[in-house]
Amino acid sequence: MSATDDPVPEILSVLIVGAGFSGLAMGIRCREAGIGPFRIVEKGDGIGGTWHANTYPGAACDIPSHLYSLSFVPKADWSRLYPQQAEIKAYLEAAARARGLLPHLQLNTAVTAMTWDEADSLWRVETSRGPLRARAVVSGMGGLHHPALPDIPGRDSFGGAAFHSAAWDHRVELRNRRVGVIGTGASAVQFVPQIAGTVAHLTLFQRTPAWIMPKHDRAIGERAQAAYRRVPLARRLFRERLFWIHEVRALLGFTKVSKLTAQAEALARRHLARAVPDKALRRKLTPRYRLGCKRVLIADDFYPALMRENVSLETGRIARITPAGVVMADGAEHALDAIVYATGFDVTGSFHRLPVTGRDGLTLAEAWRDGMGAFQGISVAGFPNLFLLMGPNTGLGHNSMILMIEAQVEHALSCLKAMRRRGLSAVEVRPEAQARFLDGVRARLSDSIWQAGGCTSWYQDSEGRNTAIWPGSVLAYRRGARRARLDADYRVR
Predict the structure, then answer these.
(1) Could you tell me the sign of the dihedral formed by the alpha carbons of 228, 229, 230, 236, in that order?
(2) pLDDT string in tens for the chain (493-residue length)
(3) Under a CB-based contact definition with an 8 Å cutoff, are residues 80 and 218 in contact?
(4) In the 8-state DSSP scheme, what is residue 149?
(5) With contact defined as beta carbons under 8 Å apart, do 17 and 353 qualify?
(6) Cα dihedral value 121, 124, 125, 130, nearest 10
(7) Closest by CA position to 237, among listed 404, 66, 63
(8) Owning domain of residue 373
(9) Is 432 found in the same domain as 376?
(10) Could you tell me if 389 and 416 lie in one domain?
(11) Burial class of 280 by CB neighbour count within 10 A (0 to 12, 13 to 18, 19+)
(12) What CATH number is associated with residue 278?
């Protein structure tokens, strides 16, 4: 897929950072609204964001395909109930092509710094391919693009192949090799079953077990695909049904520890018991925290993979990594030919890596010294004309993130439209509006499942503050965020 190399206009109306779901959605809506000139810059060499970068075996989404897609770019012929990486990436590429985004797209362009110019009311942006200027910046960077590697002594001394699952090295032949997998999160649950049958031996190093629910994935037949194509209403109703199946979890109170928590845990335990008859192994795989405190995973083939004779589960502490493998705290040694780190991402630290300087020299790191926070997860006081998509406290544990992204895109778009319509040079969220919003979020989080469920997770920052998850329903978020109230919540000039 090609993208533009045309010279950038002297001043862009909008600079969009990232060509994943968020950036492409923003680009499509800007183009439909006639807002421009705009440019989408992407640090990678292709479209798709996390779905372009993550190519490990078995990579897939845990939200149904018809719900994990843009409502304004429908796809009738999804091949499976839960989409796999290649099909999601192809969908995003097709969406960019069909909606005319390729002339606006600039690949292999990493943003390295952003500074607000108060005198000229614009952002001065440094990139790996030269400077840009834009009246407004929309960040679609997301949080799943900085792999987190464990701080294990001797990690760099290992003599075999080693890589993170998010940067899968397809040149490494794992067949008939002794493979160690460190981590049992979402990616491990997907790729372990894919490689377990081909490796000589797989040793899975688990720190904390995950709650895993049945997935019940299936192919979507040609007849259903044809019906969705011929009768768009049928597709929309199917999507709506999927929405409510997921949304009811938040409406019924799964964001708190409740009787429903215990019922869900019982279902997950039955799923484990059916697949793993070995009681000792079951104990190792049963979490000691409440379901929902960490990300709940869905899989039908992970537990059966652990029952293979060539697969072993280690739950002790890793003491160090040596050139030959892994040494446990009890002195046991595991000789390995390759190590795959399935240790997730540094989600809360992603925004701190990018130097962003707003009004009066305020940096984003300084603004967030007491924890990340933004009005509706989108706007930060002191940073005019800057809009974050998938910003702080907008992640979900129960429904499709695409629904949140669309609401955030509409919020940013309403600000951009108002700027054009009213001749505004800057819009900046009022500190009191931001504080009021964040106080409400933190109050709801204080006794939530993520804080009271007996675990620590990547939802939390280094101080234990949950700065990632939205503590309510999608309906509640969309009601508050979809339209910006400029005169009430923003300062304009």
Answers:
(1) positive
(2) 556 655 666 899 999 999 999 999 999 999 999 999 999 999 999 999 999 999 999 999 999 999 999 999 999 999 999 999 999 999 999 999 999 999 999 999 999 999 999 999 999 999 999 999 999 999 999 776 678 899 999 999 999 999 999 999 999 999 999 999 999 989 999 999 999 999 999 999 999 999 999 999 999 999 999 999 999 999 999 999 999 999 998 888 788 898 889 999 999 999 999 999 999 999 999 999 999 999 999 999 999 999 999 999 999 999 999 999 999 999 999 999 999 999 988 776 666 778 999 999 999 999 999 899 999 999 999 999 999 999 999 999 899 999 999 999 999 999 999 999 999 999 999 999 999 999 999 999 999 999 989 998 888 888 888 999 999 999 999 999 989 999 999 999 9
(3) yes
(4) P
(5) no
(6) 140
(7) 66
(8) 12-146+346-492
(9) yes
(10) yes
(11) exposed
(12) 3.50.50.60
- Calpha distance 342→150 (Å, rounded): 10
461: Cβ contacts below 8 Å, ≥ 6 apart? 348, 371, 372, 467
| Radius of gyration of the CA atoms of the chain, in A | 23
What is the SS3 string spanning 261-275? HHHHHHHHHHHHHHH
Distance CA 199, CA 119 (A): 61
Residue indicated by tokens 């060509």: 19
Domain final residue, candidates 341, 364, 386: 341
Of 320, 341, 362, which closes a domain?
A: 341
Residue length, the chain?
493
Tally of structural domains, the chain = 2
Single-letter amino acid code for the residue at 244: W
* Residues in contact with 3: Cβ distance below 8 Å, sequence separation at least 6, in sequence order: 102, 105, 106, 107
Q: Could you tell me if 169 and 275 lie in one domain?
A: yes
Q: Are residues 486 and 432 in the same domain?
A: yes
The structure tokens listed for 466 are 């949950």
Q: Are 374 and 391 in contact (CB under 8 A)?
A: yes
Q: Residue ranges of the alpha helices (H) in 324-400?
A: 364-367
388 and 437 belong to one structural domain: yes
Check whether residue 19 and residue 138 sit in a common domain.
yes
Residues 164 and 310 in one domain: yes
Count of alpha carbons within 13 angstroms of residue 199, beta-carbon side: 29
Query: Does residue 225 lie in a domain region?
Result: no
What letter represents residue 235's amino acid? R
Return the residue matching tokens 């979900």. Answer: 396
Which conformational region is residue 63 in: left (phi greater than 0), alpha (psi within -120 to 50 degrees), or beta?
beta
Q: Which residue is associated with the tokens 């895993």?
A: 212
Specify whether the CB–CB gap between 371 and 465 falls below 8 A: yes
Q: Are residues 461 and 368 in the same domain?
A: yes
The reported pTM is 0.95
